[in-house]
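Moderator note: this is an archived Q&A kept for reference. The question asked for a predicted structure of one protein chain; the sequence and the answer are reproduced below.
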Amino acid sequence: MSNLDGEPAVAVCGGTAGVPGAPVRELLPSKEVMLGPGRPVRRLLPTFGRRMVGAWCFLDHYGPDDISGDAGMQVAPHPHTGLQTVSWLHAGDVLHRDSLGSLATVRPGELGLMTAGRGISHSEESPVPHRPVLHGAQLWVALPDGSRGTAPAFAHHTDLPVVTAPGAEVTVFLGEFDGALSPGEVFSPLLGADAALASGARARLPLEPDFEYAALTMSGDVRVDGDPAPVGRLLYLGCGRDGLRVEADSDARLILLGGVPFEEKIVMFWNFVGRTGAEIEGYRNAWAAEDALFGAVHGYAGPRIPAPPLPGLPLKPRGRTR
Protein backbone atom coordinates (compact mmCIF):
# COMPACT_ATOMS: atom_id res chain seq x y z
CA MET A 1 0.00 0.00 0.00
CA SER A 2 1.20 3.50 -0.78
CA ASN A 3 1.38 6.58 1.33
CA LEU A 4 -1.01 8.60 -0.83
CA ASP A 5 -0.44 11.90 0.95
CA GLY A 6 0.25 14.46 -1.78
CA GLU A 7 2.68 16.28 0.53
CA PRO A 8 4.17 13.48 2.64
CA ALA A 9 6.17 14.37 5.71
CA VAL A 10 9.69 13.17 6.29
CA ALA A 11 9.93 10.65 9.13
CA VAL A 12 13.27 10.11 10.77
CA CYS A 13 13.32 6.87 12.69
CA GLY A 14 15.44 4.37 14.50
CA GLY A 15 18.12 4.41 17.16
CA THR A 16 17.56 3.07 20.66
CA ALA A 17 17.69 6.30 22.66
CA GLY A 18 13.90 6.58 22.74
CA VAL A 19 13.19 2.97 23.67
CA PRO A 20 12.17 2.57 27.32
CA GLY A 21 14.00 -0.29 28.98
CA ALA A 22 10.98 -1.17 31.12
CA PRO A 23 7.30 -1.83 30.48
CA VAL A 24 5.18 1.25 29.73
CA ARG A 25 1.64 1.92 28.53
CA GLU A 26 1.43 4.74 26.00
CA LEU A 27 -1.80 5.15 24.02
CA LEU A 28 -0.55 6.80 20.85
CA PRO A 29 -2.52 9.23 18.69
CA SER A 30 -3.68 8.28 15.22
CA LYS A 31 -3.92 10.44 12.13
CA GLU A 32 -6.64 10.17 9.52
CA VAL A 33 -5.28 10.07 5.99
CA MET A 34 -7.00 9.31 2.71
CA LEU A 35 -6.42 6.10 0.76
CA GLY A 36 -7.97 7.53 -2.36
CA PRO A 37 -11.20 9.55 -2.62
CA GLY A 38 -13.59 8.91 0.26
CA ARG A 39 -11.42 6.15 1.78
CA PRO A 40 -10.05 7.31 5.16
CA VAL A 41 -7.54 5.17 7.05
CA ARG A 42 -5.99 5.54 10.50
CA ARG A 43 -2.22 6.03 10.42
CA LEU A 44 -0.66 4.66 13.61
CA LEU A 45 3.04 4.50 12.67
CA PRO A 46 4.88 6.75 12.30
CA THR A 47 3.02 9.00 14.71
CA PHE A 48 3.76 11.82 17.11
CA GLY A 49 5.98 10.47 19.86
CA ARG A 50 6.68 7.05 18.36
CA ARG A 51 8.02 6.19 14.92
CA MET A 52 8.94 2.51 15.17
CA VAL A 53 8.24 -0.68 17.10
CA GLY A 54 11.20 -2.95 16.51
CA ALA A 55 11.65 -2.90 12.73
CA TRP A 56 7.95 -2.05 12.18
CA CYS A 57 7.99 1.47 10.74
CA PHE A 58 4.52 1.98 9.20
CA LEU A 59 1.02 0.90 10.18
CA ASP A 60 -2.34 1.83 8.65
CA HIS A 61 -5.62 0.42 9.97
CA TYR A 62 -8.52 0.67 7.51
CA GLY A 63 -12.18 -0.25 7.71
CA PRO A 64 -14.41 -1.98 8.24
CA ASP A 65 -15.79 -0.27 5.13
CA ASP A 66 -18.86 -1.16 3.09
CA ILE A 67 -17.53 -1.40 -0.47
CA SER A 68 -20.50 -3.27 -1.92
CA GLY A 69 -21.44 -0.32 -4.12
CA ASP A 70 -18.03 0.90 -5.26
CA ALA A 71 -14.66 -0.20 -6.57
CA GLY A 72 -13.16 -0.68 -3.10
CA MET A 73 -9.41 -0.36 -2.73
CA GLN A 74 -7.68 1.18 -5.72
CA VAL A 75 -3.99 1.90 -5.15
CA ALA A 76 -2.25 2.52 -8.45
CA PRO A 77 1.34 1.42 -9.19
CA HIS A 78 3.90 3.02 -6.88
CA PRO A 79 7.49 2.29 -5.79
CA HIS A 80 9.18 1.04 -2.60
CA THR A 81 12.76 0.64 -1.40
CA GLY A 82 14.44 -0.61 1.76
CA LEU A 83 11.43 -2.26 3.36
CA GLN A 84 8.96 -5.14 3.38
CA THR A 85 5.22 -4.61 3.03
CA VAL A 86 2.79 -6.81 4.94
CA SER A 87 -0.86 -7.07 3.85
CA TRP A 88 -3.16 -8.43 6.57
CA LEU A 89 -6.92 -8.68 6.14
CA HIS A 90 -9.85 -9.35 8.45
CA ALA A 91 -12.45 -8.91 5.72
CA GLY A 92 -12.39 -8.49 1.95
CA ASP A 93 -9.70 -9.37 -0.57
CA VAL A 94 -6.84 -7.47 -2.23
CA LEU A 95 -5.39 -8.19 -5.67
CA HIS A 96 -1.62 -7.62 -5.71
CA ARG A 97 0.40 -6.99 -8.88
CA ASP A 98 4.07 -6.05 -8.99
CA SER A 99 6.95 -5.36 -11.34
CA LEU A 100 8.25 -8.93 -10.91
CA GLY A 101 5.09 -10.17 -12.62
CA SER A 102 3.49 -11.44 -9.40
CA LEU A 103 -0.30 -11.71 -9.38
CA ALA A 104 -2.02 -12.85 -6.18
CA THR A 105 -5.30 -12.30 -4.36
CA VAL A 106 -4.71 -11.97 -0.62
CA ARG A 107 -7.65 -12.99 1.58
CA PRO A 108 -8.35 -12.86 5.33
CA GLY A 109 -5.88 -14.91 7.34
CA GLU A 110 -3.32 -15.00 4.52
CA LEU A 111 0.03 -13.21 4.40
CA GLY A 112 0.99 -11.05 1.46
CA LEU A 113 4.68 -10.24 1.98
CA MET A 114 6.60 -8.10 -0.49
CA THR A 115 10.30 -7.44 -0.01
CA ALA A 116 11.18 -4.22 -1.81
CA GLY A 117 14.92 -4.51 -1.24
CA ARG A 118 16.75 -2.31 -3.73
CA GLY A 119 13.54 -1.41 -5.57
CA ILE A 120 10.13 -2.65 -6.69
CA SER A 121 6.77 -1.25 -7.74
CA HIS A 122 3.30 -2.69 -7.18
CA SER A 123 -0.42 -1.98 -7.17
CA GLU A 124 -3.25 -3.12 -4.90
CA GLU A 125 -6.94 -3.22 -5.71
CA SER A 126 -10.17 -4.89 -4.78
CA PRO A 127 -10.78 -7.56 -7.42
CA VAL A 128 -13.90 -7.72 -9.59
CA PRO A 129 -16.13 -9.00 -8.15
CA HIS A 130 -15.14 -8.39 -4.53
CA ARG A 131 -16.57 -9.07 -1.12
CA PRO A 132 -18.77 -6.32 0.37
CA VAL A 133 -16.64 -5.38 3.41
CA LEU A 134 -12.98 -4.35 3.54
CA HIS A 135 -11.10 -4.37 6.85
CA GLY A 136 -7.41 -4.79 7.45
CA ALA A 137 -3.99 -3.44 8.22
CA GLN A 138 -1.05 -2.52 6.05
CA LEU A 139 2.38 -2.62 7.65
CA TRP A 140 5.97 -1.95 6.65
CA VAL A 141 9.13 -3.48 8.09
CA ALA A 142 12.40 -1.55 7.73
CA LEU A 143 15.24 -3.67 6.37
CA PRO A 144 18.58 -3.48 8.19
CA ASP A 145 21.45 -1.95 6.27
CA GLY A 146 23.00 -5.29 5.34
CA SER A 147 19.75 -6.50 3.73
CA ARG A 148 18.19 -3.43 2.16
CA GLY A 149 20.00 -3.99 -1.14
CA THR A 150 18.57 -7.49 -1.50
CA ALA A 151 16.71 -8.54 -4.64
CA PRO A 152 12.99 -7.72 -4.59
CA ALA A 153 10.59 -10.60 -3.94
CA PHE A 154 6.94 -11.40 -3.26
CA ALA A 155 5.49 -14.31 -1.28
CA HIS A 156 1.87 -15.29 -0.64
CA HIS A 157 1.44 -17.61 2.36
CA THR A 158 -1.99 -19.15 2.86
CA ASP A 159 -1.12 -21.58 5.66
CA LEU A 160 0.06 -19.81 8.82
CA PRO A 161 0.72 -21.28 12.29
CA VAL A 162 -1.88 -20.81 15.03
CA VAL A 163 -1.22 -20.96 18.78
CA THR A 164 -4.27 -21.74 20.92
CA ALA A 165 -5.07 -20.92 24.54
CA PRO A 166 -8.37 -20.83 26.46
CA GLY A 167 -10.47 -18.17 24.73
CA ALA A 168 -7.73 -17.16 22.28
CA GLU A 169 -6.33 -18.22 18.91
CA VAL A 170 -3.16 -16.44 17.86
CA THR A 171 -2.16 -16.49 14.19
CA VAL A 172 1.54 -15.81 13.67
CA PHE A 173 1.77 -13.93 10.39
CA LEU A 174 5.41 -12.87 10.72
CA GLY A 175 8.25 -13.88 13.01
CA GLU A 176 7.97 -16.28 15.92
CA PHE A 177 5.55 -16.58 18.84
CA ASP A 178 5.52 -19.22 21.57
CA GLY A 179 7.51 -21.62 19.40
CA ALA A 180 5.38 -21.12 16.27
CA LEU A 181 7.26 -19.72 13.27
CA SER A 182 5.69 -17.92 10.33
CA PRO A 183 6.89 -19.00 6.87
CA GLY A 184 7.41 -15.34 5.95
CA GLU A 185 11.07 -14.36 5.53
CA VAL A 186 12.34 -11.75 8.00
CA PHE A 187 15.65 -9.91 8.24
CA SER A 188 15.61 -8.94 11.93
CA PRO A 189 14.06 -10.51 15.06
CA LEU A 190 10.40 -9.46 15.17
CA LEU A 191 6.81 -10.56 15.67
CA GLY A 192 3.51 -9.90 13.94
CA ALA A 193 0.58 -11.85 15.43
CA ASP A 194 -3.21 -11.63 15.33
CA ALA A 195 -5.13 -12.76 18.41
CA ALA A 196 -8.80 -13.74 17.99
CA LEU A 197 -10.34 -13.41 21.47
CA ALA A 198 -13.67 -14.88 22.51
CA SER A 199 -16.01 -12.83 24.69
CA GLY A 200 -14.91 -13.26 28.29
CA ALA A 201 -11.39 -14.37 27.38
CA ARG A 202 -8.65 -13.80 29.94
CA ALA A 203 -5.34 -14.80 28.39
CA ARG A 204 -1.63 -14.30 29.01
CA LEU A 205 0.49 -14.00 25.90
CA PRO A 206 4.17 -15.00 26.27
CA LEU A 207 6.64 -12.30 25.22
CA GLU A 208 10.37 -11.84 24.70
CA PRO A 209 11.81 -9.42 27.32
CA ASP A 210 14.33 -7.91 24.87
CA PHE A 211 11.60 -7.02 22.34
CA GLU A 212 9.61 -3.82 22.41
CA TYR A 213 5.88 -4.31 21.77
CA ALA A 214 2.71 -2.52 20.76
CA ALA A 215 -0.90 -3.70 20.43
CA LEU A 216 -3.68 -2.59 18.07
CA THR A 217 -7.29 -3.52 18.72
CA MET A 218 -8.88 -4.15 15.32
CA SER A 219 -12.38 -4.86 16.69
CA GLY A 220 -14.17 -5.53 19.96
CA ASP A 221 -13.78 -4.45 23.58
CA VAL A 222 -10.28 -5.25 24.83
CA ARG A 223 -8.09 -4.47 27.83
CA VAL A 224 -4.34 -4.88 27.57
CA ASP A 225 -2.27 -5.04 30.75
CA GLY A 226 -5.39 -3.90 32.57
CA ASP A 227 -5.95 -0.75 30.49
CA PRO A 228 -8.58 -0.19 27.79
CA ALA A 229 -7.18 -0.56 24.27
CA PRO A 230 -9.71 1.25 22.06
CA VAL A 231 -10.25 0.18 18.46
CA GLY A 232 -7.99 1.95 16.00
CA ARG A 233 -5.41 3.16 18.55
CA LEU A 234 -1.92 1.80 19.08
CA LEU A 235 -0.94 0.97 22.65
CA TYR A 236 2.84 1.07 22.99
CA LEU A 237 4.12 -1.30 25.67
CA GLY A 238 7.90 -0.82 25.81
CA CYS A 239 10.39 -3.57 26.66
CA GLY A 240 11.11 -5.87 29.58
CA ARG A 241 7.97 -8.03 29.53
CA ASP A 242 7.86 -11.82 29.58
CA GLY A 243 4.08 -11.90 29.23
CA LEU A 244 1.05 -9.74 28.52
CA ARG A 245 -2.46 -9.95 29.97
CA VAL A 246 -5.29 -9.46 27.49
CA GLU A 247 -8.99 -9.49 28.34
CA ALA A 248 -12.02 -9.28 26.05
CA ASP A 249 -15.55 -8.31 27.02
CA SER A 250 -16.80 -9.16 23.52
CA ASP A 251 -15.49 -11.17 20.60
CA ALA A 252 -12.42 -9.20 19.57
CA ARG A 253 -9.32 -9.12 17.38
CA LEU A 254 -5.97 -7.76 18.49
CA ILE A 255 -2.73 -7.34 16.52
CA LEU A 256 0.48 -7.66 18.51
CA LEU A 257 3.66 -6.21 17.03
CA GLY A 258 7.14 -6.60 18.48
CA GLY A 259 10.80 -6.76 17.74
CA VAL A 260 14.30 -6.01 18.91
CA PRO A 261 14.66 -2.20 18.93
CA PHE A 262 15.96 -1.06 15.55
CA GLU A 263 19.38 0.46 16.24
CA GLU A 264 20.00 2.05 12.85
CA LYS A 265 18.66 5.48 12.05
CA ILE A 266 16.67 5.68 8.84
CA VAL A 267 14.94 8.27 6.68
CA MET A 268 11.39 7.63 5.44
CA PHE A 269 9.80 9.73 2.73
CA TRP A 270 6.72 8.76 0.75
CA ASN A 271 7.22 5.04 0.02
CA PHE A 272 10.97 4.95 0.46
CA VAL A 273 13.20 3.92 3.35
CA GLY A 274 16.82 5.03 3.11
CA ARG A 275 19.70 6.22 5.24
CA THR A 276 20.39 9.67 3.81
CA GLY A 277 18.48 12.48 2.20
CA ALA A 278 20.54 12.06 -0.95
CA GLU A 279 19.41 8.44 -1.26
CA ILE A 280 15.76 9.41 -0.89
CA GLU A 281 16.12 12.16 -3.47
CA GLY A 282 17.69 9.66 -5.86
CA TYR A 283 14.82 7.17 -5.39
CA ARG A 284 12.21 9.87 -5.87
CA ASN A 285 13.85 11.20 -9.04
CA ALA A 286 14.29 7.67 -10.43
CA TRP A 287 10.56 7.02 -10.08
CA ALA A 288 9.70 10.40 -11.65
CA ALA A 289 11.99 9.57 -14.59
CA GLU A 290 10.45 6.08 -15.01
CA ASP A 291 13.86 4.57 -14.36
CA ALA A 292 14.22 0.79 -14.76
CA LEU A 293 15.14 0.53 -11.06
CA PHE A 294 11.46 0.01 -10.18
CA GLY A 295 10.34 -1.91 -13.25
CA ALA A 296 6.76 -1.69 -14.47
CA VAL A 297 3.44 -3.07 -13.22
CA HIS A 298 1.32 -4.56 -15.99
CA GLY A 299 -2.44 -5.11 -15.86
CA TYR A 300 -3.57 -2.27 -13.61
CA ALA A 301 -6.25 -0.18 -15.35
CA GLY A 302 -4.91 3.28 -14.73
CA PRO A 303 -1.81 5.48 -14.54
CA ARG A 304 0.84 5.08 -11.89
CA ILE A 305 1.08 7.42 -8.89
CA PRO A 306 3.33 10.42 -9.61
CA ALA A 307 6.23 11.20 -7.31
CA PRO A 308 5.41 13.97 -4.80
CA PRO A 309 7.73 16.98 -4.50
CA LEU A 310 10.56 16.78 -2.01
CA PRO A 311 10.26 18.98 1.07
CA GLY A 312 12.24 22.20 1.23
CA LEU A 313 14.17 21.11 4.32
CA PRO A 314 17.10 18.68 4.29
CA LEU A 315 16.23 15.02 4.88
CA LYS A 316 18.24 13.88 7.88
CA PRO A 317 18.00 10.76 10.05
CA ARG A 318 17.31 11.55 13.68
CA GLY A 319 15.83 9.59 16.60
CA ARG A 320 12.89 7.23 16.86
CA THR A 321 10.75 9.63 18.94
CA ARG A 322 9.75 13.24 18.43
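Archived answer notes: The chain has one domain: 10-259.
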